[in-house]
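[SOLVED] Need 3D model of a two-part complex

Original post:
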Amino acid sequence: MSNGMGKTMKNGNDRRILLAHGSGGRLTRDLVEQVFSKALANPILDRMDDAAILELEGRLAFTADSHVVSPIFFPGGDIGRLSITGTVNDLAMMGARPLYISAGFIIEEGFPVDDLESIVASMGEAAREAGVEVVAGDTKVVERGAADGVFITTSGIGSIPPGIHVSGSGARPGDTVIISGTVGDHGATVLSKREGIDFDTELKSDCAPLGSLVSDMLAASPNLHVLRDPTRGGVAATLNEIAASSGVDIEIDEGKIPYRAEVRAACELLGLDPLVLANEGKLMAFVPAAGAEPVLEAMRKNRYGGAAAIIGSVKEVESSRPRVYARTILGSRRIISMPTGEQLPRIC
Amino acid sequence: MSNGMGKTMKNGNDRRILLAHGSGGRLTRDLVEQVFSKALANPILDRMDDAAILELEGRLAFTADSHVVSPIFFPGGDIGRLSITGTVNDLAMMGARPLYISAGFIIEEGFPVDDLESIVASMGEAAREAGVEVVAGDTKVVERGAADGVFITTSGIGSIPPGIHVSGSGARPGDTVIISGTVGDHGATVLSKREGIDFDTELKSDCAPLGSLVSDMLAASPNLHVLRDPTRGGVAATLNEIAASSGVDIEIDEGKIPYRAEVRAACELLGLDPLVLANEGKLMAFVPAAGAEPVLEAMRKNRYGGAAAIIGSVKEVESSRPRVYARTILGSRRIISMPTGEQLPRIC
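Solution:
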């Protein structure tokens, strides 16, 4: 029995996913036992029932993220790591402590089993790094050409500590805007890899779980107004969303935004604005001005916030509707609009 | 602003999903507001934060299901209805009251917006029928040819009442095996539709949410040993899983399994064994013999259990490992083995 998958999938050393791995029958069971359970083992998942049983109480955060990144493997991460950090970060942005993850896999027939094993191992590592457990999952296989490799949709549950109220609509005039580190790393990395561009310098995704960073920030000041991770659409989309939800203007100081030199170089080469590039291990915090310094200090001590910087502030709405402005290095001011983004599919 | 999607997607009357609908920018927001929020509106989803906030306590069930059914629309349902009922039923099979759903959409560029609207409307209806709310979601768009239409991964949270302990490993010798209705309806319908076979009689999927059925059964007898919905791999796979997890033999009486005439006809035509066909609105219950009649009676009074029937019982393991047997109409006995299932991809 334990050799079921090996026997059926092996074709020389070239083990491939078959349609029957998604059938609900013997090969599905073998795939679960030999690939998923091995890398993600924990007492809840190991029960293998139709659903995981969790003991929880109080206010919970619940979120979902589908991951379709192309290429599946990129410097600094892969779709597996991303599928954990993406959902962990959505939970953390509500001020929640991320706890449990479910994962639905859609796999293309013929996908290499070795690659799937790498991806699932990477999920296991990211889950340990984030302090979460993958407790439920599902696998479907579609015929060759009906999907592109593998897609992973994760959903997560986190616990929100009493007294914490963070929301995208909480920004208030006078708030200080903080970013946890360099901007555009993930987007620049994936796009460069996709375009086949090699940089001599090390360009890699920032893909990381931010639960501990948020927890340190909340310990420094429980009164955080907004937390958001600038993923798809980048800093530009995130700031525009917050401005609209909160009914405020936001002004950032272009010269204060931290960038890696290699991201700047990639953006110049690819003709991209780094402010619309996805980040997968960064957050933006809106904090009452008085609390900004202690929060910044706490961030810089955390491994995921070493390059944290104050980049702007919140203003009363100036014109007919909320807007985001950048103060340029030359002192002038330009509007940062909501990106239309047609050029950046499958970044996460 | 509110015309954003209409303007950009319209091409005559032929509105199509564009890559930019998955970009995280303006069109993503328009899609969320104009398609998803409209059909699925509820106070939690309407907050539009990175995660939903729920107030819950006690034992929770948590599950995930990816849906890739082909064709997307079939008699009796569509991928939207299926994505709700599939996850609701996984929760119900743990004895949980299904409460909240998250949904991750992966959509192929060029997919008709009208079809997406139908699917999301169908999700909304199924959610109301099941008494659950879709509270979190995500949408990704992949380029033409990188997915087949639309895939939906749902994850669900339910609340398990105190004192309820249902598990796939709970079957005990002497237990009565009950099925909630006719077998094979969903599988036969989807396969017939896919093969382009039209039956004069009405063949349709049984796709339905079973939370209220389980709740009525638990009210009749809280001591249910096992609840399982025989989806992928059908009754054959489900019985084999339960036998293996519980370490028992299971014997069913072939003559007592309820089938619709049109399902029998479809199986004969397509050369299929109805016991390996997926069901999407049926459950199997393993109940101590003394409690079987009250449970059966409660099931028959529920709209989703009208044709419930006792089909077998649990025995001590007879040979070297747990097995499932069918007593045939002629009185002989055959082994029902775990299906390998290569022939039935994308049934759910």
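Edit: Chain A touches chain B through 89 residues (CB under 8 Å).
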